[in-house]
Amino acid sequence: MADPAVLELESIRVAGRGIPRLDGVSLTLRAGERVALIGPSGAGKSTLLAVANGLIRPDGGTVCWQGEPPARPGSHRRRRQQARIGTLWQDLRLIEELSVQQNINAAQLAGWGWPRALLNLLLPLDSEACTALLQRLDLDPALLSQPVSGLSGGQRQRVALARLLRQDPVLLLADEPLASLDPRLADELLALLLQEAQPPRALLLSLHRPDLLRGFDRVVGLRAGRLVLDAAPAALDPASLEALYAGSAAAA
Amino acid sequence: MRLAAPLWVLAPALVLVPVLALLPGLSHGGGWELIGQFAWAAFTPSLDPLVLGSAVQGLGVTAGIALLGWAASLVLGLVLGLLSSRTVWRTLGGSAWPAEVIRRLLALPRAIHELLWGLLLLAVLGLKPVVAIAAIAIPYGALVARMTSDLLDALPTRQLESLRAAGAGPIGALLTALGPPLMPQVISYGGYRLECALRSATLLGVFGLGGLGAELRLTLQSLNFSELWTGLWMLLAVMLSLEALLGALRRRWAMPQRFGLHQSGVGRRGREMVLAGLVLVPTLVLVAGALEVNPWQLLEPHPLPPAPPVDWAGVAALPWPPLILNTLVLTLTAAALAVGGAPLLLLLVRPWWWGRALVRLLWALGRLWPPPLTALLLLFVLQPGVLTGALALAFHNLGILGRLLLEASETGAGRSGRTAAEQALEASGSGARLALLYGRFSSVASSYLAYGAYRADVILRESVVVGLVGATGLGSQLLEALSSFAWDQIAALVVAYAALTLLGEDLSDRARRRLLAPPASAAPSLPDAVPA
User: Is B3 near chain A, with CB under 8 Å?
Assistant: First the structure.
């Protein structure tokens, strides 16, 4: 019996100016699967991730999260669905003016009512959970009360990851999380993400560098809005990678 | 315990607690059916050609007064601004002390509200079209002068010095080095002043200085609500189109926004700007001709009634402490209601598009509706007093601050109308309201509050306006003095007002500087990565 599907995309089409940004993309992620999304710039990786987390409603095709179609935007059910989807944004999207702890706790806003949401802006809430997360990510718990705007790049990345883990999502999405990191930090972050993506979770991560694909279960390749590659990393040969990126320097 | 940024924005709204607790005691029972009739009349404005005709004519006069007063204030302000700039004096003569002196002197006309200027000029000159125009031009001119000289003196002088060192004449060097960076700021600020001038001209009309305001007041006092709404809807249409036009020009010419999270003022399309300026001049002449404005009339005082003997003992016997205290309470209550109310309303209606549209309409009405008329309306159901005046002022300023809050948060938002952080929160399942609170109010908090501090200072100046319709404080005392031509009292009260305003200006300047001080480590600006 196959593991349950966490994300099912079926014939997704997203219109663009002239050519579609995504064209007939079908992709299923099962619990425990860790999938790398590769492709040249402008191939539609970010668009695919935005469809997967509900930010973009596709012009054609269907999305299913854990077997459910997306509920009406703004509805209670949709919010519960969104709460199970965690995104690590390329630009992190931390709230600069708030403290590390308040940022991490922002992941709980889906479940919190007004009283706790307001209280979190006054007093540090759930310190133990946040401390445990920082320790797990190798950050000094003393940072909890610091404003996010004062952190270094690597620290910010980890705070964003801590927020993601505090959300405890089933579907983990990451949009080029390694792009702006130095090689050592990139390796560490990737290892952390792969380690967190255990069943029932699934991970879909887009990246630029084909040399980091080893830890994934599957690699899918996008080119000009179409899915042109779906293979285990071990089965990838240089020729198919070459074909995927061919002419991309000129196109980009 | 530390207040986080989003709470700073909401904290002033706590003033609602005492206000709502006091309101039932203020209500005098009756009058609700009048309020109901007033609200209903919004949907049934009078379409009688006679009413329409007089509203159009009144609106024309109001718009003309606004336009001429604004233009005069710009000319006056630019000249005085140059004269009170330290950089200009240093370049021309060497010493900067005359700039300081002029700057200090300009504080007085600035501290006196345009309505006070209007009533003082009215008392001295009698009812002439030029009175309302001068009433706007004098305080606005002093404001523009301050803005211009502040901007000028904040510009780096390196270019200017290098031009001078290369042998350029002082005037040529000033124009070349400081003109280009100054112009976009001045044009953008000048545009906002025109919006303010339209509101001021309406207000002056309420007190009988010409234009639509008088009709608004008369129809309100005679309970002719459907005729009142005819004028109101037309005024609203004019104001919203003016705001839209100026907003479009600012974007087209890439002018700085009033307070931008993203400073991008560079200035584009200089030829269009010059053309717009050239069109403006004959328009002004035509308007002046139509209104029969004669600037020489400013020099022809009309015969005053014999002044009563000066009675300084009587002046000293005025109840100064309660007068000043009431004015301050009025100002602070109104400011807190307006500053905290705008984000609170935005939060309340966030999930519904119709709610957002309704709030925008409410704010637009608040902006154009002169506070004394709101006070008159409130008197149908409430007793006169400090709180009634504060509510009227708060409603007006709520409209102004609400628009600013939207403007500020929209400069930081993408095409979806939400900031990136807000989008991220919604994508992780948080409701629209909490996403707004955490994701958007955080980033606008300090600049919004800085503007709020400036606004508190404007409200102090404006408190005279509701004082004039019977709310207690310096304003109502001033009206009494004006109607009895008690020049000694008028002088003392105006000086007291000016002193209070200057004190408030200083305090709000300090608050603003603290709020806008850059944090220890500036946040890197993040691009919007996900295509939306």
Answer: yes
Amino acid, single-letter form, for residue B459: I
Structure tokens at B119: 């009533």
Residue B103: both structure tokens together:
């700057």
Q: Do B429 and A169 contact (CB within 8 A), yes or no?
A: no
Choose from A22, A48, A82, A91 for mutation: most chain B CBs within 10 A.
Answer: A91
* Nearest chain A CA: its distance from B444 CA (Å): 10
Rounded alpha-carbon distances, angstroms, from residue A30 to A65, A119, B220: 11, 38, 69
Which of the four pLDDT bands, split at 50, 70 and 90, describes residue A47? Answer: very high
What is the amino acid identity at position B145? Answer: A
Classify A121 in phi/psi space as left (phi over 0), alpha (psi -120 to 50) or beta: alpha
Per-residue pLDDT tens over the stretch B451-488: 888 888 888 888 888 876 666 778 888 878 887 778 88
What are phi and psi for residue B264, nearest 5 degrees? -135, 25
Of the pLDDT bands very low, low, confident and very high (cuts 50, 70, 90), residue B261 is very low
Q: Is B360 exposed, middle or buried (0-12, 13-18, 19+ CB in 10 A)?
A: middle
ipTM of this complex prediction, to 2 decimal places: 0.89
For position B258, what pLDDT does the model report? 56
Which residue(s) pair with A222 in the sheet? A227
| Rounded Cα–Cα distance for residues B408 and A184 (Å) | 39
B128-157 b/e with 16+ CB inside 10 Å = b?
bbbbbbbbbbbbbbbbbbbbbbebbbebee
Q: Is A147 strand, coil or helix?
A: strand
Residues of A in contact with B1 (CB under 8 A): 122-123
Residue A35 bridge partners (DSSP)? A204, A218
Q: At what angle are helices B97-111 and B487-516 packed, to 10 degrees?
A: 110
> CB contact, 8 Å: B523 with chain A?
yes
Cβ–Cβ contacts within 10 Å for residue B305, how many? 8
Residues of A in contact with B430 (CB under 8 A): 79, 106, 109-110
Say if residue A157's pLDDT is above 50. Answer: yes
The 10s digit of each residue's pLDDT in B298-312 is 777 777 766 667 778
Query: Chain B contacts of A115, Cβ < 8 Å?
Result: none
CA dist B154 and B141 (Å) reads 20
CB A92 to CB B438 under 8 A?
no
Q: What is the mean pLDDT of residues B357-368?
A: 89
Please report residues of B whose CB lies closer than 8 A to that of A99: 4
Of the candidates B128, B152, B111, B119, the one whose C-alpha atom is nearest the C-alpha of residue B68 is B128
CA distance B522 to A240: 44
Q: What is the mean pLDDT of residues B142-164?
A: 79
Specify the pLDDT at position A74: 83
Chain B nearest C-alpha distance from A27 (Å): 20
**Which chain A residue has the Cα nearest residue B351?**
A74
| Beta carbons within 8 Å of B88's beta carbon, 6+ residues apart | B82, B99, B152, B174
Give the span between the Cα atoms of A123 and B2, in whole angstroms: 7
pLDDT value at residue B305: 67
Mean of all residue pLDDT scores within chain B: 81
Give CA–CA dist B396/B393, Å, rounded: 5
Instruction: For residue A87, list its beta bridge partners.
Output: A173
Residue B398 is predicted with a pLDDT of 93
> Which of A128-137, B114-123, B409-418 shows the lowest per-residue confidence on average (mean pLDDT)?
B409-418
Find all residues with CB under 8 Å of B95, minimum gap 6, and list them.
B89
pLDDT-derived band of residue B321, with 50, 70 and 90 as boundaries? Answer: confident
> What per-residue confidence (pLDDT) applies to B530?
27
Instruction: Give me the pLDDT at residue B260, please.
Output: 44
What's the rounded Cα separation, in Å, for the pair A177 and B197?
51
pLDDT at B511: 79
